[in-house]
Design a protein that fits this description.
The complex is a heterodimer of chains A (about 80) and B (about 250).
Chain A lengths: L6 H6 L4 H48 L1 H4 L7
Chain B lengths: L9 H33 L13 H28 L2 H33 L7 H22 L3 H15 L2 H11 L19 H33 L4 H8 L9
Helix pairs in contact in B: 1-7, 2-3, 2-4, 2-5, 2-7, 3-4, 3-5, 3-7, 4-5, 4-6
Classes of the chains: A mainly alpha (about 80), B mainly alpha (about 250).
Chain lengths: ~80, ~250
């Protein structure tokens, strides 16, 4: 079933190693980089959304209890 | 009637894609393992090209995807311009980077295949040149849409470049028939039985399906990020975020 006699012959690719492996390696590299980039962009965007919501909730609380929320010891 | 327009609304699509993209990635991994196993481990040596032919298992699927993705971009652009669906432009934008990557991989693996078989990394013939133009069209789309600040205007400009550029796709596909070229003819055609060994054909189809599943998975995840960006002000997205990013009921 298996085509190769040894790992050595597999890596040698019948003398075409320098052409076969860079092709597969570049494909793997770009796919990994793309996954990482898309995933991290998603995480960043999600964090932005959450911080926007938090800010809004803080503002809403401030409007409800203006004195309490601004309790930083500074008198007007 | 399938409720296609139901999923054209971002909140419904958002719920659907949450389950769909991880499934696509799992499928893509399984297909890639099977395809690489058969393509690199089991498939016999090629009578003319020796072991060097194995580049086909990434080159052909990547080239197919580079064309398919551009057609998909043209399709979504058309839908967006005609039906004014909000999601269409996001789909087009999400497809472009993945298409660019596959076009680059087509050129890269093609160069590494051309060098041992033709004796040159590159020739300015019809197939190679039209694929290079496809790569530049992707880059042009990305540059143009990201240079326009107003999202709606950017969407429209992008849709136009996607539609006009799609004329290049049949040119790439038929270039090996229309012009004399170093590039060999189509490996798989609709009309003729494939001339490859069964294991070779199987490996190529598995790799092609794997690239399909990967492309759908990564594009869905990118669309989800674009929806977060565009719909930041909308109530449904806030409710989703407050509820701990739980999947919305798609009702």
């Amino acid at each position: 079933m298996m085509h190769w006699e040894s790992w050595q012959s597999f890596w040698a690719m019948g003398g075409y190693a320098l052409f076969v492996w860079p092709s597969f390696a570049m494909t793997a590299l770009l796919i990994i980089l793309e996954c990482w980039q898309v995933k991290s962009a998603w995480t960043k965007e999600l964090a932005l959304l959450h911080s926007a919501i938090e800010l809004e909730q803080d503002l809403a609380a401030l409007q409800k209890h203006p004195s309490g929320a601004l309790d930083d010891g500074v008198q007007p | 009637m399938i409720r296609w327009f139901h999923f054209a609304a971002p909140q419904n699509f958002f719920a659907l894609s949450a389950k769909l993209w991880p499934a696509c990635m799992v499928l893509a991994s399984l297909l890639a393992i099977a395809g690489l196993w058969i393509g690199l481990g089991v498939a016999p040596v090629d009578a003319q090209q020796g072991e060097g032919y194995r580049i086909i298992f990434v080159h052909v699927p990547a080239s197919w995807m580079s064309m398919v993705i551009y057609v998909a971009m043209a399709f979504w652009s058309f839908v967006g311009l005609v039906f004014h669906t909000r999601l269409s432009a996001l789909m087009t934008r999400a497809l472009a980077p993945t298409g660019a990557i596959f076009a680059f991989l087509s050129l890269w693996t093609g160069a590494f295949w051309g060098k041992p078989m033709w004796g040159t990394w590159w020739v300015w013939d019809a197939r190679l040149t039209s694929e290079l133009i496809l790569f530049f069209l992707y880059l042009g789309f990305i540059a143009l849409t990201s240079a326009i600040d107003d999202p709606k205007r950017g969407d429209k400009a992008g849709a136009l470049i996607a539609l006009v550029g799609s004329i290049n796709v049949p040119i790439i596909y038929f270039s090996v028939k229309w012009w004399n070229t170093l590039h060999q003819g189509a490996t798989i055609t609709m009309t003729e039985a494939p001339s490859m060994a069964h294991a070779m054909l199987l490996a190529m189809l598995l790799m092609a399906l794997s690239f399909w599943a990967y492309a759908i998975g990564i594009v869905l995840l990118r669309v989800r990020r674009l929806i977060l960006e565009r719909e930041r002000q909308s109530q449904w997205l806030r409710e989703w975020a407050i509820s701990g990013n739980k999947t919305l009921e798609s009702t």
